[in-house]
Design a protein that fits this description.
Layout: H1 4-18, E1 27-28, E2 34-36, H2 39-46, E3 51-57, E4 60-65, E5 69-73, E6 79-83, E7 93-98, E8 104-108, E9 115-119, H3 122-126, H4 140-150, H5 154-159, H6 169-179, H7 192-211, E10 248-252, E11 255-259
Parallel strand pairs: 2-9
Antiparallel strand pairs: 1-7, 3-4, 4-5, 5-9, 6-8, 7-8, 10-11
């Protein structure tokens, strides 16, 4: 599933070609792609609306229109791209939006898990999301307070989008390795120094992921390079880049989790 850096990369690539263009109509080719409103209401409301801004909230793409917001979640295999107006529909195109400059904005999704919303209240859709990890409002002290308020193991807690928005399996493993924290460490036992290290690590791996256009792994994502620079994720049995100890894999909350058993020692009692 694309995480914050992959979605941010898509946003940055689409922004110059979309902002200021109008959506002329809607060709919904698989009805369940649309979460809300009804297909008829969607086609009626979106026609003629101009795309004002292209942005992101957590793992959602957020297009601000004249009257509504077009929200997309790519889930496992979704992709959003611009194609020529005369390009024939591809096999897995689920939604096609002709644009005023003759091009088309296409949502392609082989596994059919992605969803699209057209809403006049996007904040209602985002209401349960945690803070943005790259925002100025996200601070070490704030992270420390949130960790101690939840009392959970670090790995599943960081994956919880209500706790912190945008992290997934890849960047959580990478951040925990960089911060030298065991994935099973209890959040309420993290010290202020460890919380600051985790805060720096989260921002560092996300910024590096964005700089490298995300990771092209476990998803039909194009052009990413971050997978060639992983510290821990997917490197089972390979040497830790810090100490050389083989990276180990365990399952935490049904998610494969990669860590260095030497650099990321569990504190006494924390991983119980």
């Amino acid at each position: 599933m694309p995480e914050l850096p992959e979605v941010e990369t898509i946003v940055r690539s689409l922004r110059p070609s979309l902002e200021g263009r109008s959506i002329l109509s809607a060709d919904l080719r698989w009805k369940r792609t649309l979460a809300a409103p009804s297909p008829a209401a969607f086609a009626r409301r979106i026609a003629g609306q101009r795309i004002q801004t292209v942005g992101r909230r957590a793992k959602f793409l957020h297009l601000t229109l004249d009257r509504d917001a077009l929200i997309l979640h790519l889930r496992m295999s979704g992709d959003l791209r611009i194609v020529a107006g005369d390009a024939p529909p591809a096999r897995h195109d689920r939604l096609i939006l002709p644009l005023s400059d003759g091009a088309r904005l296409v949502f392609n999704d082989p596994r059919k898990f992605g969803r699209v919303w057209l809403t006049d209240d996007p904040q209602a859709l985002f209401a349960d999301l945690g803070p943005e990890p790259l925002a100025e409002e996200f601070t070490p002290d704030g992270l420390y307070a949130r960790l101690h308020a939840r009392r959970r193991q670090l790995k599943p807690l960081l994956l919880d989008q209500t706790f912190l928005a945008g992290l997934g399996n890849i960047y959580t493993d990478e951040a925990l390795h960089l911060a030298r924290l065991h994935p099973l460490t209890r959040s309420e036992t993290v010290s202020p120094t460890q919380a600051e290290a985790l805060w720096r690590a989260i921002r560092s791996v996300l910024e590096e992921g964005i700089r490298r256009n995300g990771a092209s792994i476990d998803w039909v994502y194009r052009g990413g390079d971050f997978q060639n620079h992983f510290r821990a994720y997917g490197r089972t049995g390979e040497p830790c880049p810090v100490c050389g100890t083989p990276i180990e894999r365990i399952v935490v909350g049904q998610r494969g989790t990669h860590f260095c058993p030497k650099c990321q020692l569990p504190d006494s009692g924390n991983s119980r």
